[in-house]
Amino acid sequence: MGVGLQPLEFSDCLTDSPYFREKLHTHEKELERTSQQIKGLVKEVKDLLHAAKSKLRDFIKRIVI
Fold first, then answer.
1. Residues 8 and 24: beta-carbon distance below 8 Å
2. Phi then psi for 3, rounded to 5 degrees?
3. Given phi > 0 = left and psi -120 to 50 = alpha, else beta, which region is 4?
């Protein structure tokens, strides 16, 4: 986990300096990384719910029979 990103300043974007572009690129990479982590987490939760439903169905079948 990172220590945090430096804030982007609106006044810096007006000058479009190399420093601003570097910070912007860092923010874009962090957003992409965060997005991928969220997508992975959503997939894991869906898989967990699917497994739980399957186990519950098996359990109910054993009780009814």
1. yes
2. -85, -5
3. left
